[in-house]
Please model this.
Amino acid sequence: MQILRKTNQKAYRKSIKLGQKEVIKLIKEKGLTGRGGAEFSTGLKWEMAFNANSDKKFIICNADEGEPGTFKDKFILIHNPELVVEGILIAAFAVGADQAFIYLRGEYDYLEKNLKKTIKGVVKKTKSKVNIKIILGAGSYVCGDETAIMESIEGERGQPREKPPFPTTEGLFGKSTVINNVETLANVPLAVMFDDWDDNLRLVSLSGNVTKPGVYEIPSGTSLCNLIEMGEPKNKVKAVYFGCFGGCLPYCKIKLTPENVCGKECVLGAWSVIVVDEKQSIVDVATNIAKFYEFESCGKCTPCREGTMRVLALLENISMGEATKKDLDTLEELAEVIKETSFCGLGQTSTQHLLNALKYFRSEFEAKVK
Ligand code: SF4
Model:
């Protein structure tokens, strides 16, 4: 696996020799994009922070991997944490930051001890003056949002902020801030060091009803069927979910690229694939996901706070056979309203799975209503 290669801090030393502008140029030229879901150019983000007029700059490593069915960042933090820390130091050098934070998902607290040890070792070997502090999240899904992370680090309630201003100009404590996720930062030393580093190789978290769930490294454009065959499905596959926020599709022959999946009204996001087979009910899956969103809604805006509760209540009624055809129409209308009017990405994507399920598997819902 490419992500398991070692650089032994040579990429950091090479970066220092190159200088800030050249490192940013190299990362831009190599085409590294954000692996947290946004696919935004990492070099461009660094360049914006480098050019920002800010007396202090910060790096935040987003290790708040809370998306259901996503565990590739955990895999990197367990198997190659040195790469992540080296990536943080290179990013800090490139933009001129002397303070970095790793915002670690609360449920990954057992990784903290080894991560601290790794930070100490890598900082010592590189002689970097950058201070890296681990902040343990409290288990809130919305803190995967970059503005909510900053609120949380500042000691406020973990809720999203308005954008703009964007973090690169006015981020943590009002200062220029670069936020990159674990996989992005782990790829930085590899991109700096190796001519054969391949941006096309992606980590996928494969789970659901398969015999071999796990993290797979595949080239972008691999067929969905090939990936699922690697996981050895237990029964005939009916649908795939791209995490919870990415929506669902009937099992089909598509090539896995962000553009292809997007063309099917889904989002590949953090490259999570959850397999649902013909023995499972889509209504049950939809109800489970709705429970997750109802629980994780931060409560800041009305469409998401109230809407996720109503969606769950309607789905539970449908599951129990107590809903009518009119309730099904209300559910669909509500899902659209929540998508269009919620304040942040959590609410805006919370009903995509449901809208897709109602489009592709409507008969399963209709079979349960009066
Ligand atoms: S959409 Fe949901 S998570 Fe986002 S701000 Fe509104 S209530 Fe909070």
